[in-house]
Amino acid sequence: MSEKDIYILGIESSCDDTSAAVLKNDKVLSNIIANQDIHKKYGGVVPELASRAHLSNIIPTVESAIKEAKISLNQLSAISFTKGPGLMGSLIVGTEFSKALSLSLKIPVIEVNHMQAHILVHFINNGKNMPSFPFLGVTISGGHTQFILVKDYFEMKILGETLDDAIGEAFDKCGKKLGLGYPAGPLIDKISVKGDENKFKFSLPKVNGGDISYSGTKTAFINFLHKNQTKNIEFINQNINDICASIQKNLIDNLMNKVHLLSTDNNLNTIVFGGGVSANSYLKKRLEKYSNDNDLKIFIPELQFSTDNAAMIGIVGYLKYKDSLKSNLKSSPSPRLSF
Q: pTM value?
C-alpha cells in the first residue's frame, strides 16, 4: 500500500439491501449486495424484517467484500456509511456497525447522504467518461424522485421532487393491481416490450414548477382497471402487454416533461440519473432519442450501481476523505435526511 492510496470500506443499509464495498481511491475492488427475498411475499418492504435481516447479513457481507478486494481490515483508511434517508431500523444497523468497526481499527467514519451517493456514483473510475459540473441530477427509485442542480460534489440544490409517490413506487403499486410480483417495475418493463404503448391513454398530472406527482396517475389507473374489469373480468389477462406498455409510457412521459423543463430553464446540457428506475429499458430508449434530438449528454449508471449499493457510498467516502470531511462517533442515523 503506497502512501497516496486510500482504501475506503462503504456500507449501505438504508432499506432492504445489505451492501459492502471496498474502494482503492476511486476504483471499486469489490461491491457485495445481500438481497432480502423475504419481502416479496408481503408485496413491499417490512421495516422490522429488514432491520433483522441486516443484523444477520452485515458481518458476512463485509467479510466477503474484504476478501474479494484482497486486502486486510488493517489496510482501510476509513469507513463510510449511509446516514440517511431510509428506514430507521435499517440505518441503525449500518451506522452502529460502522462506528464500532472504526473504533476497533482506530480509523475515521464518514457519513454519507444516500441520495447524493446515487448521483456521485458516476465519479467511480470505471474507464468511462464522468459528468462535468454543473448538471441536472435526477434520482429515481422506489422511495425517491428528485431533480437536483449539482454545482460541485457537495454543492447541490433541490429544484423539485415528488409531492407524493416516487416513480418506482408508482410502478410497483400499478403492477400490484395487475397481479404482478414485487418489485413490479422490472416486470412491467419486460412485459411492455410486447405491448402497444398508445393503446390506452392516461392523463398527465398538472404540477407547476419542478415538482412532480404520481398519486393521481395511480388512482386513475386503479379506476381504469375497475371500470374495464366490470365489463370484462378477463380484461387484464387479455390486455396485459398493452396495459403495461401504456402505463409505463405515462409514468416516463411525466418524468421526461420535468427533465426537459428543468434542464432548459437552468441552461443545463448534462443530465445525470441515479436510482433503480434508471435501469428501465424504455427510459433508456427515450433518453437516447432525447439526447440525440437536443444535443445533450446523458449519464445512466451501470446496472450494478443503479440500485442501492455500497460502491456509491464508498466513492462519496473517498471524495469526503480527500477533503477531510470526516464524521465522529456521535453521528446518528437520520431517516429524513435532506440535502
A: 0.93
Q: Which helix (H) or strand (E) holds 236?
A: helix 235-265
For 236-288, the pLDDT digits (tens) are 999 999 999 999 999 999 999 999 999 999 999 999 999 999 999 999 999 99
Domain spans of the chain, in order of start: 7-122+307-322, 131-301
Helix residue spans in 107-234 (DSSP H): 114-120, 167-177, 185-192, 215-231
* Nearest C-alpha neighbor of 22 from the set 311, 304, 324: 311
Q: Does domain 7-122+307-322 bear CATH number 1.10.1040.10?
A: no
**What class does CATH assign to 131-301?**
alpha beta
The CA-based dihedral angle spanning residues 116, 122, 124, 127, taken in that order and rounded to the nearest 10 degrees: 180
Q: 256: Cβ–Cβ under 8 A, 6 or more apart, which residues? A: 286, 290
Nearest to 333 by CA among 46, 92, 139, 12: 92
